[in-house]
Amino acid sequence: MKNTFLALCLGVGLATACTSSPAEKQLPILGPREPRVTMANGKPTVDTLYHSIPDFAFLNQDSQMVTQQTVAHKIYVADFFFTSCPSICPKMKSQMLRVYEKYKDNPRVALLSHSIDPTHDTVAVLRDYADRLGVKSSTWHFLTGNRDTILDMAQKHYFTSAMVDNAVPGGFEHSGAFLLVDEQRRLRGHYDGTDAKDIDKLLQDMDVLLAEEKN
Amino acid sequence: MGLPKKKLLFFLWVSIALAGCFTQRGDEGELLYGRHCASCHLENGEGLRGIIPPLVNSDYTEKNRDILACLIRQGIKGPIMVNGRQYNQDMPGNPRLTEADLTNIINYMQKEFKSPAERVSLGEIREQIKNCP
Q1: Do A84 and B50 touch (CB under 8 A)?
Q2: A with B: how many residue pairs have Cβ under 8 Å apart?
Q3: B16-130: CATH architecture
Q4: What ipTM does the predicted assembly reach?
């Protein structure tokens, strides 16, 4: 009797220990931050201002304007690519497909793939690309717009490199990074989109972030 | 009695040398595939759904066995059908690959992805390259 009780305690203990740990894990907030001092009732209080993605507006494969409103109350994964890319993009896209397949029916998740060759990647080209991949725009947006605005977004706000370089195959130099962004548009993770193991981690981190945002 | 032993040793030496040669050629194929093909067709040869055709059990590879080296060297433009599905993404050419490189790549594809079904020889690839369309 005593033994059964002990075993039961141990079982319950183990079960809760194993299931509750991911929820307690927190993702770091990336990027520069600065203190903001405000006066409340004559006393100074210090808040931390975190780096966050500014407002944006790009067209997706269905000619819809995608803005910060589109990702309101969602977490999202951003990356930078182009459809005719002969280097790392197919690898990145095959990893992004894994993310898509896991979260395609989750209304709290979005994926934003920005084209850094918007002159070639028109809405029609992106639409054909998305159709061939077999993905829906409600979750995965392929974005086009002004090239400099997109390159600026990559460099200054997502802190990933993307630039014109005629010396590399395809004409653009860019990193294969996937950026994880939370509901307040703060950067919460940075992953190598060409590395399956790093994307395993992204998939875990997204669950952690979704659990965090629920509270 | 001394002579056959010497002969035997010689044969042994030659076969070891040849074996080394063949394994190195196998590695060479893997290396070349990794450098020139894997970023699009991926290491596992499965390509990218709907965009980059697979090389695994590819009927296109098998049907075009006689011009495969030319296709790898010159690239492909326009729509093609692979295993019942249409693909339309330009494949860049690799004009710098030598006939030996092409042979190694194709034999690597044969070994790993089972298409083409039969290995190719360097002589065959030389002939192919001479008569590229």
Answers
A1: no
A2: 37
A3: Orthogonal Bundle (1.10)
A4: 0.70
